[in-house]
Design a protein that fits this description.
By secondary structure, the chain is α/β, with parallel strands linked by helices. It is 33% helix and 24% strand. α4 (110-117) packs antiparallel against α5 (124-138) and α6 (150-156) crosses α8. It starts with 6 loop residues before the first strand and ends with a helix. Bound molecules: flavin-adenine dinucleotide.
């Protein structure tokens, strides 16, 4: 049973775990309540037969500084858990290399500008317009009076359609998981600046060498429990106990849990029913109801162990497959993860048909590979919130108008798209405000 001094964290995804670990680091007592039987939320381990994979292939970036700091706090050895690769994008179109972006060892943003200058697949004039855009966003010379779509921004910056197709669209879709014609230019610019303009290593691609649960959730849980906190699984919070605009606790199916501080780190669609009965939070409820969601499908294809891809990460345009990640780096030789971000015709296919079409695309792209042994499809319909133009205007702050009630999660007001880094930043920020308030 939680006492009034305990902070209750609702949700054991990366936002909840980061908030709980940070409060623990500051000596606060926490109880984390997670409805599922497993921690990690959308970034967690699932089983594909004997293989520990993830409920969706994830890629992290060197710019995820808060995530990397958190991993170290809870005792993760970054060198043994993460493979770091300097920026390298290999894009194929109809089985042929179409575009390559390789960053040389130069300080940011020169590394990006030099990579663009020598990028095979672009004409000279495309290289110059891309470089000019890169200089403008790195120097903060692009001022948006109001949010636009990413496509409108790129057209305004004179990026021609082929350049958009080869470079900006795959980056935007991978980062925001939202089609470029509706995606927020403001959020896209923030991602571009954070990734390419501060430090060369920010644009490194980071691939976990373990499954995602073994990366953070397992370590974070141990860190919290060893310092006196509680992590309870199978505990769905069904009601918030509020009196006179002050939180007094939460109710799970079995019992009330008293607490003077409660942090909801669950997605907007799960927050909504909890906030709806609270008149003081009508505006927040209204905004949360306006969130929409985007899918991500991951198709894991298992080949014999000796099959490997030329590059750990490579992209495709013109078919269903968008990215191919060789899971050899996470100790699973022969296992390929094909990622499809955002909506599209693939969402109307059965898993069997989607698997068939993806395997056919892989056979065309890699004719020397043998037939796969097994395939596993996971489609998350609400993988991320839709990061549309003007989204930042409806994203809530951590603090609410109810005393002691807080919101965290990838959808809160971090300026980031729905990513692990956004989730972690929101959790850390929320924990620090709780600590600061109590000083
Ligand atoms: C397929 C896929 C691929 C992705 N790829 C990437 C990527 O490559 N890079 C990247 O950075 N990000 C990626 N993301 C996004 C990233 O996973 C999320 O942004 C991040 O995990 C969100 O964390 P969160 O803690 O905010 O929310 P969640 O992970 O959704 O955590 C919320 C938790 O709350 C629990 N919960 C819900 N309701 C209740 C309740 N009433 N009571 C108690 N518990 C409750 C849920 O079970 C869940 O565990 C991907 C996401 C998906 C799904």
């Amino acid at each position: 049973m939680a006492s009034n001094d305990t902070v209750i964290i609702v949700g054991g995804g990366w936002a909840g775990l980061s908030c709980a670990a940070e409060l623990t680091r500051h000596g606060r007592h926490v109880t984390l309540l997670e409805s599922a039987r497993q921690l990690g939320g959308r970034a967690r381990r699932v089983a594909f037969g004997e293989y520990p994979v993830d409920n969706g292939q994830h890629i992290l970036l060197g710019a995820y500084t808060h995530t990397l700091q958190l991993l170290q706090t809870v005792g993760v050895n970054l060198a043994t858990h993460i493979m770091r690769m300097p920026l390298q994008l290999h894009l194929h179109e109809q089985q042929r290399p179409a575009f390559v972006l390789t960053a040389p060892k130069l300080p940011a943003p020169l590394h990006l500008l030099a990579a663009l200058l020598r990028a095979p697949g672009l004409t000279l004039s495309q290289r110059w317009t891309a470089i000019r855009f890169g200089q403008r966003f790195c120097r903060n010379n692009i001022i948006l009076e109001k949010d636009l779509t990413a496509l409108e921004l790129l057209q305004h910056e004179k990026q021609d359609s082929r350049l958009v197709q080869l470079l900006w669209e795959p980056l935007c879709l991978a980062a925001l998981n939202t089609s470029i014609d509706v995606a927020s230019a403001e959020v896209f610019l923030q991602v571009l600046r954070d990734t390419f303009c501060r430090n060369r290593h920010d644009s490194d691609l980071l691939l976990p060498k373990t499954d995602l649960s073994a990366l953070l959730p397992d370590h974070a849980c141990e860190y919290i429990e060893q310092r006196g906190g509680r992590v309870e699984l199978g505990q769905r919070v069904e009601e918030l106990l509020i009196h006179q605009r002050q939180i007094h606790g939460v109710r799970c199916a079995d019992s009330p849990r008293p607490a003077s501080q409660v942090v909801l780190t669950i997605p907007p669609y799960a927050v909504l029913p909890l906030l709806k009965p609270i008149p003081a939070l009508q505006d927040t409820t209204y905004n949360l109801a306006n969130f929409t969601y985007e899918p991500i499908c991951t198709i894991y294809v298992k080949y014999p162990d000796d099959v490997s891809a030329d590059f750990p990460v490579q992209g495709f345009i013109g078919g269903l497959s968008q990215w191919l990640i060789d899971r050899r780096v996470s100790g699973l030789p022969g296992l390929m993860a094909v990622v499809i971000s955002g909506p599209g015709p693939h969402m109307n296919l059965s898993h069997t048909e989607l698997a068939r079409q993806i395997c056919a695309e892989l056979t065309l792209a890699f004719p020397h590979w043998p037939a796969p042994d097994d395939v596993f499809v996971i489609c998350e319909k609400r993988a991320t919130f839709s990061c549309r133009s003007n989204i930042n205007a409806i994203r809530p702050d951590n603090r609410t108008l109810v005393k002691g009630l807080w919101l965290a999660g990838d959808y809160t007001n971090t300026g980031y798209p729905a990513t692990i880094e956004g989730a972690v930043q929101s959790g850390l920020r929320c924990a620090r405000q709780i600590v600061a308030d109590s000083l």
